[in-house]
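ingest -> validate -> predict -> emit
validate: passed (alphabet ok, no gaps, 141 aa)
predict: started
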Amino acid sequence: MKELLENNSSIKPAQVGKIVEGKIIGRARSTAFLDLGPLGAGIIYGKEFQEAKDELKNLKTGDVVLAKIIDLENDEGYVELSLNQASNELIWERLADKKAKDETITVKISGANKGGLLAEVSGIPAFLPVSQLLAEHYPKV
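emit:
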């Protein structure tokens, strides 16, 4: 096995927490099945399916998605996956990358309180303290 892995570096062992690409191969009432290539078959069901229901309803057989491995093998032999956890992790990675590059991040202001502005960044709630605003924006809070 070691020689096989050394000779073919494109084959990587599955690990809990790893984000993998999978192709939708089937759906049931509250379950989605994915082909994970050499990793086998994956499944999104239960709480993970309910949390990603809106995203999953727009997907068809053959669509490719990114999902996070939450269990290497469940009772039925499938790799358990989460679309939500993968999505959240990828959003945070993109935000960290923008921060490292010192890029400006556009946010959607959703409200205000006496401490500052409530905002949303790529679906993640954020808070901008009033102390971080320019003086010209103080009266608008």
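The radius of gyration is 20 Å.
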